[in-house]
Amino acid sequence: MDRVREHKERPDALEALDKMLNISVGFLESSKLVPEDQQYFTEVELTTLDKLVKETLSWRNQQLELQEQTALSVAPVLTVRMLAEKIDSLDREV
To answer: What are phi and psi of 70, to 5 degrees?
Structure first.
């Protein structure tokens, strides 16, 4: 039952992660455009978000590749819970 639930819910969770990544990238890009004298965020905060976005994108691509190689009859490599944790991490940093 868990495998079936994972396979059914994964597309929506991936879509949510993609949306959060887009929001994070948009936020980061717009924050970098703010003049330094009006900047609310430190360079460390912006660098941390940039690093998290890049790591999350890389992780997402690796996990999707591994999941595609995994048979449907085997426990999934990429779980909805893992995706939710990545979404939460991005949300906290933004």
So the answer is: -90, 130
Distances (CA, A) of 89 to 17, 35, 52: 11, 27, 8
Instruction: Tell me what pLDDT residue 8 has.
Output: 96
Q: Are 16 and 87 in contact (CB under 8 A)?
A: yes
Nearest Cα residue to 91 out of 56, 58, 41: 56
Residue 19 tokens read as 């949306």
Measure the CA–CA gap between 93 and 46, rounded to whole angstroms. 9
64-81 per-position pLDDT tens digit = 999 999 998 999 999 999
Q: For the chain, how many structural domains are there in total?
A: 1
What single-letter amino acid sits at 18? D
From CA 7, how far away is CA 5, in angstroms rounded? 5
Residue 48, domain extent: 2-93
